[in-house]
Amino acid sequence: MKKIALLGFEGAGKSTLAYSLSKHFQKNGVDCGVANFDAACKHIKYSPVFDVRKRYSLQAIMEKYGLGYNAALKRVYSSLARDSAVANALNSSSCEVLLLDVEAPVEVFLSDPSFLKAYADSVVFVADSNEEFEARLLAALQEFKYGLPVLLALNKADVSTDENPQKGLHGFGEDAALRELLEPAGKRVKAFSVSAMDRRGFDELTKQLMGGN
Fold first, then answer.
1. What is the model's pLDDT at position 183?
2. How many domains does the chain have?
């Protein structure tokens, strides 16, 4: 089984992309499921193979330990990395491909990548199509930090680039020192222009995820 984590900032369209990608895999004869790892979500479009909300409540953790949102997320994902029951639940799935729909700011995993190291074989970093340069830099940094292959999905290819940039990514490339350090690596990141709405670019992305060249 290939386990692929979908990461990105708020508003990047991760859950919609997970749903659409799973349908695209299935249409092409690949048994694909989605695992929900958003402990605070209220609604999801897909029927999850695994739902973290049955074991963890972000709100309850915030209240119990007096934590803010991001600190509570770090606690959840750190606990998940050591949770053998969750590992067993995922490994018992018969899916050929399992998409991990992860909801947390990327900095949560850059500070502690133990969850990704425990569960993911690769990562798809989902970003708005109009933030390609910054997204490439951040994808390169993630690949270095996680020790996992990271592909860049430039989502919303069907949307005008004049729209506002997504929260958290705009301006990332303005740090001159970081830009100089990461720019060569960013150019080597494999990027795919996709749309979760009309599924453009999915053939190329899924081929790469399955080990194609």
1. 75
2. 1
